[in-house]
Structure formats: structure tokens, C-alpha cells
Design goal:
The structure is a homotetramer. In chain A, 35% of the residues lie in helices and 18% in strands. The first copy, chain A, is α/β, with parallel strands linked by helices. In chain A, the strands form three sheets. Chain A has an eight-stranded parallel sheet. In chain A, helix 3 packs parallel to helix 4. The relative contact order of chain A is 0.13. The interface between A and B is large, with 48 and 48 residues.
Amino acid sequence: MIIVLKPGATEKQLKHIVDRLKKLGLKPMISRGTERTIIGAIGEEDILRAQPLEVFPGVDKVMAVVAPYKLVSREFKHEKTVVSVGKVKIGSKKLVVMAGPCSIENHDMLLKIAKSVKKAGATILRGGAFKPRTSPYAFQGLGEEGLKYLHQAGKETGLPVVTELMDIRDIDLVERYSDMIQIGARNMQNFNLLKEVGLSKKPVLLKRGISSTIKEWLMSAEYILANGNFNVVLCERGIRTFEDATRFTMDVSAIPLVKKLSHLPVIADPSHATGKWGLVEPVACAAIACGCDGLMIEVHNKPEEAFSDGEQSMLPEKFNDMMKRFKPIAKSVGRDV
Amino acid sequence: MIIVLKPGATEKQLKHIVDRLKKLGLKPMISRGTERTIIGAIGEEDILRAQPLEVFPGVDKVMAVVAPYKLVSREFKHEKTVVSVGKVKIGSKKLVVMAGPCSIENHDMLLKIAKSVKKAGATILRGGAFKPRTSPYAFQGLGEEGLKYLHQAGKETGLPVVTELMDIRDIDLVERYSDMIQIGARNMQNFNLLKEVGLSKKPVLLKRGISSTIKEWLMSAEYILANGNFNVVLCERGIRTFEDATRFTMDVSAIPLVKKLSHLPVIADPSHATGKWGLVEPVACAAIACGCDGLMIEVHNKPEEAFSDGEQSMLPEKFNDMMKRFKPIAKSVGRDV
Amino acid sequence: MIIVLKPGATEKQLKHIVDRLKKLGLKPMISRGTERTIIGAIGEEDILRAQPLEVFPGVDKVMAVVAPYKLVSREFKHEKTVVSVGKVKIGSKKLVVMAGPCSIENHDMLLKIAKSVKKAGATILRGGAFKPRTSPYAFQGLGEEGLKYLHQAGKETGLPVVTELMDIRDIDLVERYSDMIQIGARNMQNFNLLKEVGLSKKPVLLKRGISSTIKEWLMSAEYILANGNFNVVLCERGIRTFEDATRFTMDVSAIPLVKKLSHLPVIADPSHATGKWGLVEPVACAAIACGCDGLMIEVHNKPEEAFSDGEQSMLPEKFNDMMKRFKPIAKSVGRDV
Amino acid sequence: MIIVLKPGATEKQLKHIVDRLKKLGLKPMISRGTERTIIGAIGEEDILRAQPLEVFPGVDKVMAVVAPYKLVSREFKHEKTVVSVGKVKIGSKKLVVMAGPCSIENHDMLLKIAKSVKKAGATILRGGAFKPRTSPYAFQGLGEEGLKYLHQAGKETGLPVVTELMDIRDIDLVERYSDMIQIGARNMQNFNLLKEVGLSKKPVLLKRGISSTIKEWLMSAEYILANGNFNVVLCERGIRTFEDATRFTMDVSAIPLVKKLSHLPVIADPSHATGKWGLVEPVACAAIACGCDGLMIEVHNKPEEAFSDGEQSMLPEKFNDMMKRFKPIAKSVGRDV
């Protein structure tokens, strides 16, 4: 930790800080510059992080030297993590494609979509039974009934299934019926929910919050790993910016950057990032080209009648055509799909 | 709802949409412009909102005419709502000042701060027993023990108390020990938590999410009202922007705007918005001048030793001085403090 | 244009607006909804755009139906524009790669870099003689001397050259020594500069402003076309967001979206978007995969000694390796490089 | 400057950096931490700022210790600057109110508005002769004719006048007819324009760019001071954020913060920040309460017929009423209006 003093900081103020650092078991190193005095605190940075150093008399600012996350970092574990969801390996050479409807609406529709996405090459089935909706008057999901349909569709097609958990009270239900637990963007900093899935044996798909920095996202993953669950897959799904021509702005550079910082696999969700099915394909291609480990894509056989997110859902035929176009791109960066 | 067709939309596509509108019980009005055809759908806009109209063939975009919130709107209830927390009325002529430490650390410290803020004129005591922390390694709050200290400090000083609820499982605890339930920024779209506090009899303080639009904030309040609890106070606490000189950017114009759109009281939290205690006073004054119904301010007797948010906490003496300076400003806009 | 009236708008207010519309030669169509009355104004939307309709008594909001740009739109010109810069065609099957140093520092260094990027496959040489620098104390570019070096390096290698114009007074100089005029992000809304390059015969490279919407970007291009110069190439170079792990956030979805809205070619600048040379390759690959017509990349033979932007500049050998990896990706989306 | 090395940085890399620092005349101080080695470089930080240190082998990140601006800082000049515009003093106890129409439309209208704002208490007349408009098809201002009307209206009412300069070629014209030169938000980083007004004898009103950090804004002011003109007034006019309920987001905390960092006066423009005349008053009151030195407000006698920005312009009567309500607020913070 670097502590920069104010121009007029007194010797007494300096001594006060130095004493405190020593008391905490840290070794202070003082550099008296032409314009400012700075103190380098050598030792466990985490001890210092808990101190409100900026409030000490004479302190101008405090700058961290090391990142606050440990278990998710490449420094902690150098080799890339491969997360298994059923027989599917996420983080291996083969890209994972999770596809399915935004909301589970009924058994037949889900099964029909599941079959078509499987045929097109998807390897995990997605579908929401609990839906976080901005409006209390919008469709909130089928709940357990939906989970049952999802489980059945997974069994009938042989696809592992992933679904969102919104409420701690539903964790047993979601664990029972699904192969992977999704934490949605709105719950990325629902820390108690993170702790619970950290105690679960199921792999977790952690979406990035719409206004979360990469550092905060990794810290949320750290919550899950710190509670014992190392099977975490990160999902970039667009951040909120001033641009309103798309629903969110896909932060494509986050993908290679997170892969440098962390050993966890990273996938991309172009459906939510763009909010427009016509942009799903080019943005998915971009994500593949810059190294993502997979994609999550909304597919619906009748977008016109979808209960949610119809605008960003693709028809199965279009999804099928797109999957074919993914192949050469994946190959061009040394991956399969 | 206004449906704008693409330039080359066909008669068949137009008919398809018109038929659907009629089937939904709406009355379509077609305007053929020089450049585009538009359809106005007359009737309950909520029916249409559930339809993924943008995905219909020939549709370019869909524009809403009315706001999606009902119960929180001025159109639903014209007179300003006054929320009672114990004997304190929020939304009346007298501004409410909620003050106290970020985290409850122990009984003595809390009581000491409580007494000093009461003396300075604060009317509600704040303090966190459950703390949402970015890092799993940071202090997470004292839990029930903290709630007990808060309750005691409230009793000893006669101040009603407000504290954050993060986890649905803790709602009984928080209800038992506090007079007002705070929903933090990170949980503004934790819809199940909103539903639960909607069923509670305690008043709710709903903080704005750091990247939530005003519309989304009001929709989250709508969740609470729609579940039966009309005692909601909104709290502007800064939004996330590109500017990093302050922790967040206080959206001061949100205060008068929300007061036009909604009947609910609105307070401001300059401590979190700025993240620097030296900016708390000027930003608090700004909030008073533009019509807020109160303030929430972090006060700590030893910010240097605070377990959290020391940088943005004020010393009791400074808080006391500041309260004096609030008086003439409040008076200048027809309020008391 | 759609005019939505307030709930309590009077008949007199309605008549006042209708009269005004008729006076402007527009045909008003009134729809009386259950909650609101709306007026559709049929005719030239541009006439209305100049009217401050939102200020009329009784008006709640005004919504545009058509986009405000004309000449840059796909509706005005359906076929993709191909812009010629010397013998290089931008917007054709072959991707253009513009490469070179951020600043021109001296003749030898520039020529050395020019030769190496040409060998690696770049087809246009970039280099700044006028540098927009945040600090008045930073290196501001060599001016005319730099332009001469650029011109020479272009001649010796056979590469056309592009350089930034910041000041209207320098347009003759820049026209004399370069083959393409770059308008930087900071000048995207320097409308007088846009008008001047609109009168030039040289092709223009228009970078997106760091906080410009896609609509504003296209409107700035419209300024150039409206003044007679149709040879405009757009360049996405990252937007400013809350994320500070990268210098800017590359808005990769803007590439396919702009290509839908406009006939102009679009290239991407991953060096400025990321600000880190280690992220240039993956982000460039992403841009190719989603359909960009080319790239602009900073290359420097001694980044450690660069006068500007050393952190985001690539070594020639790394650039050469990267160019090889671009080939299969370009091919996978039907392009060459 | 603090240089943080990567975990695996070698002794050779460390030596390479240390040698470079010494060659630059700086004194390196090495601290070997448990996790990282850091180097503090003691001496003129500006020397280092010009070095692309992040690109040196083994370097992880580089952190500045002092701010990059000098002349505008409180450290350079402790006492508050008072800028004179004719007989008006900006930065003194009395708040300045600059008022007038967005665009100058004709002589009579301008004179009428000038008289009414003077009567209401405004002390500077504003009006645009050159208008930066997003669309090339929108009204671009009357040019010199407008400047003449402005000059005349100033003379007839005795009010000094301020108007925007967009183009270096117009500086003589603007100097001739006005008392203060405005640099608009879009030109805040038009560095050549800043240099020119730095050479002018007229005081300058420097608006903050819509996506400029406070640091960049101060650096732009530094350009003007570094060229010899110390009469600079800063104007906060809202930044671009995700919130679209207002045209921009007034960053009210920037006012007290800039006043801590710099000796220059700071005013606020609530008309552009909100884009809605109904929000101008509360936001202006907020700006006064947090210490601004004045306001810039758009007033129009017939907003319905305004050539630009009608939505955010106030009627003279409303402006007059508002000015009365400003008085007690100004007084409550020790100021006059």
C-alpha cells in the first residue's frame, strides 16, 4: 500500500501513521520527494485494506499495490480452470454454447426448442423459471413447475441444464432440478446468495453486473471460491453506458483481460448485451474471436409470443445457421464449437 | 403505445399487427406518413407492454406513451405521502436527518454516537448490522448482536432506528429490532426482497441502485407498494459515472424530478454519494436547496478506527456544526431542520 | 413526429398545437387514448424537429419517428460505399490495416516503422504531426516537419498516409502532405472543422467521440457529406464508461449496427480503445469477426522511448505475428487481409 | 511517481528501470514488499510523466503522486481568483447571473430579453451567434450579425456580454463584440482554440466537456493559463451518464471539489444540465447552496418560437420570480445575488 501525504503534512502526522503501521506489523518505508512525502507499507496488504487510512490527518490518498482478489487470480492458480457441467467441459478447447428460451413457458415449447438447439450443436440448455423483472406486473416465471419442465427437457435431450437462482430460499429446488446455477447480473453483489452457492456442489455461472467493474466482478467470484466452490464460470453480458442504440454495451475487451487476471472460464451473452437478435451473431463472433470459452444465447420458436425478451430471441433456424458460421471463426483461433 | 413500421413494411405485415392488436382488445389507429407508417394502439398500455412487438415483421420500433409505474405516481395519488417512523414524520415541513455510523461496532461506541447526533438535531439513528462488502475478507457486520445494540441505543436516546436488510431470512430479526427497514443500493432490484418488505408493516427506505434509472427506481418502489406497503421513502445516493474524483456522482436533479413524478418522500445520502467527508456538507446543502425531505449521514467518533467507510464519516463535532448551517438553508426553501 | 399530451391537457391546448402543425404544412392525426391523447404529425419531420414542441402548453413529450441523418443512411444509398485512399479501397473485401506510430518523432524512426508495417501487410501508414494532448506541457507534435517526414515515408514505401487535422488553419498543409485526413475523437463535434473537410477532396477518417452516441457520430458524418465530401470512413475507437481497467470500452456492437444504418465503411482502433498493447490483438480479432472494414493500430519500434502512447504501441515483430493471425479470422467471415 | 513491478520481475528488469530513472536525474527508492517490489521515483514528476513507463519490461502499473496541473491549482495560488468582466466581479461575495437566449435571433427579441433579465437582477447577458448544432440542417446562428445585436443590447442595457467562440478564425470578431469569451463543452479539448484564448486579453468562460473528468477540465484551463490568460471562469453544465430522464446529469459535487483543487471561480449552468426548464430552479438552488460563484441561465420570451433549446428556456416572468427565491438561499451560505 502506498500512502501519499498532503504537501503540508507535519512530522507529527507522519509519525502517527508510521506508528500505526508498525503496530499492525507492517514495515513503513518513507520517501521524501521534492513535492510530497510518501510511505510504502510493506507486509500483508489485506491488513491495511481494512484501515480507513485516507482519514488519517495529513494523508492525501492511498493507493493499492496488489489486487484484492486471491483465489480467482492467475497468481493463485496459473493453469486455466475447466468446469464440468454434466459431461460438458467449460474452458476446454471446445466452446460451450448454452441456448434456450429466456423464460420457460410450458413443457412442449421448451422441449421443442431444446431439441432444435441440440441439433444445431448447443451443449447446455438454458431457461428461466424465476425471472427478475423490472415491473411487478410482468410475468415472473413458472417457479418449480418451470424447473420440472427444464429438468425433463434436459433428460429427454441429454443436455445438462442451467437456470437462474434469485432467492436463497429456492436453492434446494434449483439444485435438485438443474446442473448449473446461474447468478444473474442483478444479483452479482447479493453477497449472501454468493455465499450460499459457494457452499453448493453445483457449478455456478456468474453474470457480470451491469455497472460492475472487472475488479468487483472478480471479487464476487472470490466470494464463491472463498466458500469452497471452485467451479465458477464468468459471463460477460454487457454493461450500462450512455449509448442507447443497444440495450447494453458488450465489453468485449473484458474477455481477454479477465482471462489474463483469472484462471476461471469466461463466456459471453450477446442476447442480453445487444437486446436485438439481429446483432447477436456479429457480437457472438466477436466474442469467439477474442477468446471466450463459450456463449449463452436466447432462442425461441415464436419470439412474437415470447413471455419475455422476445426482441432479443432468435428463431431456431437462424440459430442453426449461425452455429455453422461459428465453426470457421472458432477454428481460426484454435477452438472448436 | 406507438408502433413505427419500417420504410418497406408491407400491407400484409401491417394487417398482421392490426389483427393482433384487435385480438388483444385494443383499437389501432393507422397514420400513413410521407416516410413511415405508424400505428397508435389505444387501450390499456399494460396489455401491450407484455407483447414483444419489436419482433413482429415490419416493425422498426415501439414507443411507450405512459409510464409503467402506477401506485407510486402523482397521477395515482396527488398529495405528497408522509411516512411515519416512530414519532418522526418524513415528507413534512421538517427535514429528517438520519445519522450514525456505517457499521455498528459495539454498544458503547454506538450509544456515544447516538447521543451526540441526537444532541446535534438528528431524529433517526442509522447503523448497519449486516454489511454488503465487495470483499469476502472484509468485516461483514455484527448481525443480531449489532441489531440489539441498535435497538438499545434507540431506546436509550428515544431515536427511532433504521438498518439495512440484505437477506430475506433476516426479515423477522430486522423487523423486531428496527423501526424502518433499509434496502441498499445493491439490492434495489432484488425483487423477492422487495416483495417481502412489501408485506411488512415497517416503513421502508429504498436506496437508488448505482446504475438504476429513475424509472427503474420507481418500478422497484412499485414492487413494494404493489405488495401492500405504502410507507416507502426513496433515497438518492449517487450513481456510477466515468468521474472517479468522487466515489459516485450525486444526481441532484433526480430529487426534484422524482418529486414531480411520485408522491413518495425523497431523501439524499451525501456520505455515500461523495465518499469523502469533506464534501458531505456542500452536497447535503445542495440536496436541501433542491427540495429533499431529509438526509442520511455517516457519523463516527473515531473515523480512523472505523470498521468500514471511515473516509466518508464525519466527526460528531463537525456534524454538529454542519447541522447548524443546515438551518438557514432549510428555512430559505420553506423547511425546518 | 408523435406528440404525447399530458393527462389533463385541454381542448384549447390541443387546438393550439393542431393549428401550429397545419400552419407548418403538416397533417395532424389525433388519437384519443384511454389515458392520453396523442397527435401524429404527418409530413416532413425535419420541419418539426426545428420546433421546440415540448414547451407547448399541454405537451408531455415528443418522439421522433425517423432518424435525423439522411445522406449517410442506408435508406439514402443502399450499396456499401467504397472509399479510395490512393490505390487502397476501404469497404471492399480486403480489410485495410492502417499502422504506424502515434506521433511522428523523426524521419528515420518513421521510415523504419513504415517499412516494417508494410512488410507485415499494412496498406496505409498512420502518424500524428499535430497531437491533441491533455496537458499543455506534453509533446504537441512536430507540425509541418512531421508532415514532411510522413509524406516522404509514404513515398519511399508506396503506402498512402493518414494524419490528424486538429486546426482549420492547417487544412492546406494536411491536404498537401497526406492522402487521408483524420478527424480525432475530440474533434468529432468540431462542426466547423467538419464543414471544412466536407469541402476537401481528400477522403476523411472520422473517429467516434468518446461520449458520442452512434446517432451523433452519424450526424457528424452527415456534416461532411452535406458539404459535398462522400468519402468518409468511420472509426470506432472506444467510448468512455465507468470501467477503468481499460483506457476506454470498445463498443464492438457499434460496428455491425452502424453497418446496418449507414453505407459508409467502418474500421476499428483497438490501440486507443484498450490503451494496452497486450489487448490489441484479441480486440482487433473481435472487430474483424463482427464485420469491420479495417483496423488502425499503433506500432512503434521502441515503445519505451515513444513520445506518446507508448503503453498501447506494439513492437513491429509482434505486429507482424498478429497480422498472420488475422488472416484466418478474416477468411472465416469472408474477408481478406 | 510510484512504479509497481510484476510479481515475477527480474533483478535485470529492476536495474534497467533504476538506470533509466537515474539518467533522467531522478532518485529511485526501492521497497521490496512481500508480494511486490515498488520503486518510488523522487524528483520532478513531470519528467516521468513523459515516459511510457508502463511499457518497460517487468512493470505492472505506474501511479502518479501529484496532480498534473500547476497554474490552476490551489497549491500554486492559494487565494481565490476574482475575474472581472466589465464592472462585474466573478468569484466575489456577490453571485453572478448570466442570462439570455440560447441563440440570438434578432435585435428586438434580444433587447427585450436583455432588459427583462437585467430588471430581474442578471448582471451579464448571454447569447449565441455561433451555434454548435448536432445536425448540419439545424439553425447555425446569425454569425457577425448576431454579435452586433449582442453588442448593442449590452450597450443599451449596460450589461457586459458573453458569447461562444467555436472557430479560431472568429476570435477577432468575438473579441471585438463581447466582454467574455465562452468555450463550449464540445470544444473543451479543442486545444488550439484554448491556446488562442490563452493569448487573448478577454476573460474566458470554460465549460466542462460532457464526458470530461474534473482533472481533464482543469488541464484544459491549464492550457489557457499556461498561455498567459489567468482570467478563467469554470462552468459545470452536466455530464453524460446512463440516466436519460434529464438531458445531462448535473455533477453538483464537482463545484465544491473544484473549489478545493483550484483558485478559479466556478459557476453552474442548470439549463443545459437538465434540459428542462421546470428543473432549472431547483438545480440552480442546489448549485448556490454548495458554493458556486454564479449561474448561467437560458431565458426566452417566446420559448415556443425559439430557434434552439426552447425546452430548457425560461420565460422572463418565471426567471424574475426565481431570482427572488435565489436571494435567501444565497444569503444562507453567506453570499448575495
